[in-house]
Amino acid sequence: xxxxxxxxxxxxxxxxxxxxxxxxxxxxxxxxxxxxxxxxxxxxxxxxxxxxxxxxxxxxxxxxxxxxxxxxxxxxxxxxxxxxxxxxxxxxxxxxxxxxxxxxxxxxxxxxxxxxxxxxxxxxxxxxxxxxxxxxxxxxxxxxxxxxxxxxxxxxxxxxxxxxxxxxxxxxxxxxxxxxxxxxxxxxxxxxxxxxxxxxxxxxxxxxxxxxxxxxxxxxxxxxxxxxxxxxxxxxxxxxxxxxxxxxxxxxxxxxxxxxxxxxxxxxxxxxxxxxxxxxxxxxxxxxxxxxxxxxxxxxxxxxxxxxxxxxxxxxxxxxxxxxxxxxxxxxxxxxxxxxxxxxxxxxxxxxxxxxxxxxxxxxxxxxxxxxxxxxxxxxxxxxxxxxxxxxxxxxxxxxxxxxxxxxxxxxxxxxxxxxxxxxxxxxxxxxxxxxxxxxxxxxxxxxxxxxxxxxxxxxxxxxxxxxxxxxxxxxxxxxxxxxxxxxxxxxxxxxxxxxxxxxxxxxxxxxxxxxxxxxxxxxxxxxxxxxxxxxxxxxxxxxxxxxxxxxxxxxxxxxxxxxxxxxxxxx
Length: 572
Known about the structure:
Number of strands: 33
Structural class: alpha+beta
Main location: nucleus
Strand order of the largest sheet: 1-26-25-24-23
Subcellular location: Nucleus
Shape: elongated
GO molecular function: transcription corepressor activity
Largest sheet: 5 strands, mixed
InterPro entries: Ebi-like (IPR045183), WD40/YVTN_repeat-like_dom_sf (IPR015943), WD40_PAC1 (IPR020472), WD40_repeat_CS (IPR019775), WD40_repeat_dom_sf (IPR036322), WD40_rpt (IPR001680)
Helix content: 25-40%
Distance between the termini: 126 Å
Pfam family, one: WD40
């Protein structure tokens, strides 16, 4: 090619003799190709194709090159002046430069993605703040409602005192005293034929001997806000209470009567603070609490979304944080290795207590979880404002049972003592009984006239300490009544009409013979399950949020809206 180039140059420049001499030396005249048959510019085309081949060889023969990368074009001058090895080196360096550019662009993209993520996080924070503000509004609404109830209690007290004074004045003038109210037995229709009709028990006169005297009541003072939860230790004389003042308290209630206990001085108390310093931060309200089966640990749930575990000496053993909303319900399993919490964030969490970490989070509900209850050591039920009930099992990623049938918020779920039947109650004015053997409810209990707030199973029947007694379900409603149900046939046994305001809590005595109920009318009634009559009655100074029996069955504790806990002696 070099000789051909020189010949072309000499010929074009007019040096024909030099061109002939060079062609002769190169042996061009001996070529068998007829020059007249070669098209014009063939030499240029031939040289172009040679350059293209050289360029392809430099690219494709480069051992460091990736054949999937862009083809690297070279300048004609480079192709003419450099050999293949030099061209390969050029291509290698050029591709390194391109890779750096790509890396730079990737880094810029990553920065953009990180900025987007940061924006999302800021958005989530704003959303969470909005949720917190919404929860605060709900909390403030609840507080105002409770204040209204307290105000109603005060007005009611004034009316009672005025009436008592009027009766005393009438008695002094020789007026005939009011006759005692009679116990009325009313036949009710319940839609099921056969058997005895249910009874409605009216209020007995307070002048009867069933009224508990103040000397048989111990008032535990110290909380600075309403007390919404209380629970006796299952093994001793310790009583726990939880309040809106951001504290829980463990009271040591001495054995014997309230009279002898008060003579020995006030009850010893441990204050479990859920916030350092001031104790009026509403975000730390203690909403629920539960003792483990051995009575050695107390778990508390708070409005700040944290569960805490305390020793009987008041030491904070664990703080369990994962929920993003208030905890409304909290339960230990029987074995005591798992703690179950249900939250406003629509999730339930099973905590490994020994490891002090969450074992599994269950995210099936579409509304806040209102109640949770263990069926056994590994499976449990949850209820929510989304009208649904789910039965879940530790280790399973989906519910093992779904119960749909309520048309309103499901306020409470409770397994029977044998773990075979699940009872639920709702704002849809119904209670239902479910079985793991079928999808639809077994019984639909519709006798209440307003929302049903809570329910409890009696500690009777198979698998209990009272196996020869009938299993009974009690439901408490905003219609001011408590109803007792025979769950074997789904029939109403009786209606207990002793309250004037919504009933918030019911609890069976350990022997299954009595039922205590607490209402916003400030009254605690103790009913005999044999005849449905009130055998004991106490009227306090605030609406009652919860009642509970100690393990011996001789004391009843109740917490109320006037910031106190009262302990009643119960001896028949």
